[in-house]
Structures are given as structure tokens and as C-alpha cells.
## 1
Amino acid sequence: MIWRNKGHEFDVYAETLLAANPQMKYYIFGAGILGKELMLVLRKYGCLSAFIDNSTDKQGNKIDEFDIISFEKYLEKRDGQIIISASKENRKEIKNQLEENSLKYRTDFFMYDEFTYSIFPIISVYYFDKSYVPLAQVSVTERCTLKCKKCAHGCFAVDNASKDLTLDQVCKSADCFFSKVDFIKEFVLIGGEPLLYKELAQAIQYIGEHYRNQIGTYAITTNGTIVPGEEVMEVCKKYNILYRISNYSRRIPRLKNSYQKLRDALEAYDISYIFSNEDDEWMDYGFDYVDRGGDESELLRVFDACQAPCREIRENRFYFCVMARSVSENLKFNIGENDYLDLNKLDRKKYKKELLEFTLGYSEKGYLDMCRHCNGAEAENIPIHMAEQMEKA
């Protein structure tokens, strides 16, 4: 989307959101992983009332200080909006349950993704006067232990001798980001394979020591091929790091042993992790064959339909799409060098709204140069084999 009224793009919509829930009270429907992650955000803002769950085994219990209640008990008060934070398999059923009880979608309740990525960022700025970003990443290295043909970051093309970010760059990235962002739902160290980064323990320590209270979920995304050493494990435990572990065992069976070693090590240190399902499909973004040319109307269409959630911070540069930046560099497209928001140049008085608007898809030209080489949202309809290797890795 092209900036037409910078700093005021959401003024009217924000009024509608605030009027629908003037007390800013929320209930999380679903006492599972997603619900617990969202709890970290809403608790920070003091606007979570309780969890709702259909399981009678969970009702009457608590998650931290918050009660788990039945939907029937919620209906007795009906004093706040609901965010459906259940698995994809259960969301439709819960949505029907709410609508059968005269609750209106996007008035009385929201789905987890839209609330987290599109609604709450607006509420955070306009109601709480706090800048909020759902997800941002620091790519500490582009090097990887695997050579996946369709890597969404193009890391298969990166030589192992390539330079990583320096520790100073990582620290400056965090400093700049958190000077403008009051709270983030999830802050992630990624790669490449981040466990290759030699100064990972120091990076985790610095960010954790200075900014842990501004982070809901502090995470590392790994392909599971490396077991961290004691220094990394200790600092991960100290700052409550969550490991998100990819699962490529169907395509690369030998990794099963590596996964088990990593999980055993994390459990020994009482470090949380989420191990992905053993799927066998990725989406084909088409970086290696798509070329849309320079038709701006087409590029605007592709960008607006995509709305990728993965922001990246690299010193003062806040990139809308981490894949666009990394693929452009790693595959030598060398375009989009200016497709970022310079956090150091934000207007002092209205930076929160400008940052909000950029995070939700507004920019000077309304698209990224790398959109011309990406399938965007259409990638969901182009399944490919997961983690197919270019060579023996």
C-alpha cells in the first residue's frame, strides 16, 4: 500500500476498534500453545480477563494467574472480546459455536492471526500509546548446515566462508529496534542456521539482559542439526529462550538422530522447544524463475495480497520482508537496497504511527522490488518437496 496520509492511515479504523471494546478486555479461546503465547502480550498490557476452553478437564484450572472458564460462563458476562487461539482444525468449529450464540465475527471476536498481526498493533498505538510489533528477526548468519534447493532465504548459495553479522551489529540492531518498539510478541534469532554463529551466547545475553522485558517470546529457529554447547544452553535457560525446530526427517531421514540429541539436550536444561510436524511440503516462492518485470500495478497487487509477517531488523534498517532482503543478497539480485524503514529517521512526534503503518504494509512506493521475483500469496498453491538437498549435506 502506498502512503497517502503518513501517520494517519489508521485514524478512522482505530476509532471503530476502540468503540467496539472501550474497556479493552479480552478472552483467549484456547488454552494451548497459541493461547499461551498471546497471553504474554495481553498480560503485559493488563487487558487479559481469562482463558476459555471447551475441555472440561481444563476448566477450573489456571494458566499462571488466569482462570480457564467455560464458554457458558463467559456468556453470563459477555464483557470483552474473544480471540480464537485454537489449532487450525478447531477454529472453524469454535467460530460456528460463537456465531450460534449471536457473537459477530470481527465485532465480538477475532481469529488469532488477524488479531495478532493486524488488529492489536493498531490498538497498542491508539489506545495504549505503545509501539508494538508482532514478529521481528535478526539474521545473525546466512550460512547453513543444509543446502536446500528451495530455501526461502537462498542460503544454498552462501559460501561457508561468508561473513556473519558481527556481535556489534547484532547489538546495534537490538538497540535501534527497542529504542522504537515498546513490546514485541516474538523476537527471533535466525539464519541460515543460527547455531553456527560463534558469538550466539553473547548475542542472546546482550538482548536478554537489556530487552527481555520488552519481548513476549524470545526464540531461536533452527534446522536441528547442531546441539548447542554449555555456554549457549546456560544463557538460553537464563532468558527463557524458545527453540523452534524444523522437522525434515521425511526428506532427510538421517536427521532423526540429530533431532533426538537436540531435544534431549534441551530437556536436560529445561529449555522449551516446539518441534515441527513431519510434513513434506514447502511453498514455492519462485525466486529462481519468476520475473514480473516493472509493471507497478502488478507489483502493488502482489504485495498487497501477500502481507508477509516476517520483519527483519539489521542495525537501523527495518525490512518488511526478511526473505526479500536475504534472497536479493544471497542470489545476487542486488535489488531493493532501499526497501526498508530507517528507524533513525522516523518523525519524533509520530514515529509510533509511522512504524505501525510500515509494519502493516505501507511504504512510499507500496511494494518491494523483490516482489517482481516472488509468487507471493500464490505460493500457497504451489507445493514443493521440503528440504530437498542440492548436494549431500
## 2
Amino acid sequence: MTQDEKITQLKNLLSPDTPTDEELVALLLITQGAILNRRYPFGTDIYEVPARYEYIQLQMCVALYNKKGAEGQTAHRENGISRTYEAGDIPQSLLKQILPMAGSVANENS
């Protein structure tokens, strides 16, 4: 999925809100970094989100957008509505869906 396709999808998911393209690009970059850090915890030369995780990236963007103005909120009760956010910016339930890649330990003498 291209960046433009992701932006279009996000606009559809966030409707009737109308975030700017710049806001959506920022969200995509933040979530891209989170996904790549989770997928490749020891670093990588890969800079694109693997295709299998693109829809999780969109879900992460929606979660971050919906927290806008209430970042870091741990509890909130008002008129019978209660809100509590998971630790961190991106919900752990989404991050847990990303399988980390691991390699073997290489012998430096070989």
C-alpha cells in the first residue's frame, strides 16, 4: 500500500473528522517507527512497514489520533463514561500483534 493509499484509508477511518495530510503523515511516521522497532529489535536496513502489518499501522494511527488532546490519560470519568488508556502512546494490544524478528548469535572469530 502506498503512502497516498494509507492517507486515503485514514481519512475514511477518521471521518467525519478531517485531519490534514501533514497530521496523517506524522502519524504514519510515528507508527512506522514503532512497528519497525518492534519487528526488528536489533536494528535493520528495512525502512518500510512490512505489508502484513500495514493494517495494524492504520489501527495504530487511529488510536493515536483519537488520543489527541488526552495523551497520557490514565483515567477519566464523566457522565457515566470511563476512559483509561494503556501505558505508552500506542496500545500494547496492537504492538503485541507484531512478531519480532530474531537472528542467531554469530561467532566473531569465524
## 3
Amino acid sequence: MVMETLLIYILGAGLYGLIEIIWRGWTHWTMLLCGGACFTFMYIISAAALPLWAKCLISAAAITAVEFCAGFLVNIILGWHVWDYSDRPLNIMGQVCPLFSFFWLLLSIPGLALCSGIRELLV
């Protein structure tokens, strides 16, 4: 179980870093940590006996919560300015916003499918 979780975390960190590099042209090491945590949460969520739409909503909420907590620490407390959504409508302290929560919802569809496929390989 520990090795499975570690594998999922490392895979999520790498995949999220790659997505950020493709999307923004760069990433920050703290985003790898967040990506690993988010993918681990999605892996757990993917095993639930719920319809896909519910898993996607829960995943998007979990990712948004991780993003807010990480942003509060990294951007507000430490002042590293890794990202800033202050210019986005309905943002919360510049750390999260509905637009990116929607992106997490969309990304959760292939993410959850990947999690399910990995689980089938590992079990």
C-alpha cells in the first residue's frame, strides 16, 4: 500500500509538472508537490462507487482545496508569487478561482480514467 501510494504520488507530481510546462512554459517545485497530492486524492476518489460526474466534482473540489492551501502557504505566507489569480473573477485571495476549478473538473475526467487504469495494473 505504501509503495502504491508513493508510485501514484510521484507519477502525479511528474504529470502535473509536465502539464504546467506545456500550459505556462514553466513550473515550480512546489507545484510538483501539489500535483502529487492531487493525483493521490484522485486515485483514492477513483475507487469510490460513485458515478463519474460525482467523482469529477469531488476531484475538482479536492484539487481546488489543495491549490488554496498551497497557495496560501507559498504565495501569501512565504511570498514566493508562484501564481496569482487576483485578476480572475470571483477569486479567493488570488489563490483559487472558478475558472481554474472548472479546468480541474475537466482534467479530472482523463485523470480519473488514468487512475482506474493504474489500479487495474497494480491489483
